[in-house]
Prior knowledge:
The chain has helices spanning 2-5, 95-101, and strands at 25-28, 35-38, 50-55, 58-62, 65-70, 80-86, 90-91, 114-125, 128-137, 140-153, 156-166, 180-190. The chain is mostly beta strands and 191 residues long. The strands form 2 sheets. Strands 5-6-8-9-10-11-12-3-4-7 form a 10-stranded antiparallel sheet, with helices on one face.
Amino acid sequence: TWGKNIRWQDNWRRPPRHWDRKTSRVERNKNSGSDVFAWNCRKIIEGKYIVKFSATEAEGTFKKISGAIHFNEIDLQESFINISIDVNSIETGNKTKNEHAKESSWLDATAYPIINFTSSQFNKTSNGFEAKSKLTIKNVTKEITVPFSFTKKKNRGVFKGKFEINRKEFSIEEDGIGEILKIEFTIPVNG
């Protein structure tokens, strides 16, 4: 599992030195008195997350994601998110469309089976947070900014957000669908 056998990729940000890999805990901030989550490489709750995409004449979801999350609302500099999406888990509701989406003109699942999202910086906003990040699709990496919200209850939390990309910037050259892909996600984390 991610909590025990994680292997950090070369381009992934390593956790802080004081990071406790063994436990996931709620810390109390001494200055504000507020409870903040300090996640330490905890597994995303299986079967509860949603990653959707949509464009003109195309929509679907990805059924398999994995990743490492460390998020501290008070000390955003110590936060990071690394998410991998299994391209072969794409689901459009139509078997033929699923296979077509895996072909070279679309996501080319054989050559590039993973979509990777790696955060580089977090900022607080009036509506929640934003993550400046690098998104890699088909071996093309672009810097993006992802606005998101975070809600918590006891030792669980949920990240929600949405953003847009231009598919042609990632070498997705399929004709007949809109250039703009809208991505929406809901990711619950078990602390």
